[in-house]
Amino acid sequence: MFIMKTLAGFIHNKREELGLSAKGLAMAANIPLEEIEEIEEGKELFLSVTVRQALAKVLKCEPAQIKALEKDITDNIISPEIIESLKELILNGAGGLKCPQCGSLLVTRVAKLYDLEDNLILHPKAHCTKCPFQIHS
To answer: What is the pTM assigned to this prediction?
Structure first.
C-alpha cells in the first residue's frame, strides 16, 4: 500500500487502514477532533510528545515513525522573542494577528491539554493562511 511521505498522509492512511473515522481516532487517542482534522489537513506539522505518543498507540506504530514526518519550520526563521510574544498574545485572546514571516492573517487557537495530575495546560497554536509559518507551542 502507498503511504504518503507527509505527516498528514501518514496519519490519514494509518487511520483508514485500521478502519477508524477521524472522530474515532480522536476519541481513542483522547485528542480533540479539531486537532486530528488539522493534522490530516496538513495544518499541524509538529506534534507534542503527548499527542505523538497517543497517536502512535492507537495507530499501532512507533512514535519515531510519526516524528520522522514532522516539520519544525519556524526554527531559525523567526526570532524566539517574536514567537513568545505571539504566544502571549494568543493566550490573552488577541485577534487579527499577522504572520511575522509574510504578513498574512494568522489562524489562532488555544489547545487545552491536561497533564498527568489533571492540571489544565494551555498551549497557543497558530498557522498562517498563506505561508507555512506555524506556532505549535
So the answer is: 0.56
Q: What is the distance between the alpha carbons of residues 2 and 99, in angstroms, rounded to a whole number?
A: 35
Q: Three-state DSSP class for 15?
A: helix
Superfamily grouping for domain 7-67:
lambda repressor-like DNA-binding domains (1.10.260.40)
Beta-bridge partner residues of 108:
126
Listed by start position, the domains of the chain span 7-67, 80-135
How far apart CA 72 and CA 74 sit, in angstroms, is 6
Task: Work out the angle between the directed axes of helices 49-59 and 22-29 (0-180°, nearest 10).
Answer: 120
Q: What is the Cα–Cα distance from 137 to 122, expressed in whole angstroms? A: 9
Residue type at 80? Answer: P
Sequential DSSP letters for 65-127: HHHTT---TTTTTS-HHHHHHHHHHHHTT--S-B-TTT-PBEEEEEEEEE-TT--EEEEEEEE
The SS3 of residue 128 is: strand
Tell me the per-residue pLDDT of 81-125, one tens digit each, with 9 for 90 and over: 888 999 999 999 888 899 888 788 898 999 888 888 889 999 999
